[in-house]
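[job 4471] stage=fold_predict status=RUNNING
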Amino acid sequence: MSWTCPKCERELPKPEQRHYCARVSLDSLFDGRPAELILVFDKLLAEVTDWDEVLVGVTPNCIVFTRRWTFLVIRPMKKELDIKFYSKVAHPEKPVVKSVAVGNKFENHIRIALLDDLRPALFVYLRESYDLL
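[job 4471] inference complete, writing structure tokens
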């Protein structure tokens, strides 16, 4: 059961969950970004929001995807998207550019800029992060 913050109208997994409380437009995060970057994000959004109980929140710097907890964070940069996801094990191989232990899991980052960068393996990683919760 989700909860909607009365101040920012952001939908969250739990009542009174701590969050960045501000109304932010998703479009504002992509101002001045390449059109292809928006297409890449749209493809990711379409795939992930199709999964059960996924909530999407927008902060001034990123888009946060939660189920019970955050499983995916996408941060639009000038020319690429920084995609952060979680796993049980480290992923030191490409396309992962960074994999760091955080508690009992690993925080991983992939950077993509082109539609051609959207490989099936990326969606496998994202689904594993979703299933980790």
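[job 4471] summary: The CA atoms of residues 88 and 105 lie 5 Å apart.
[job 4471] exit 0
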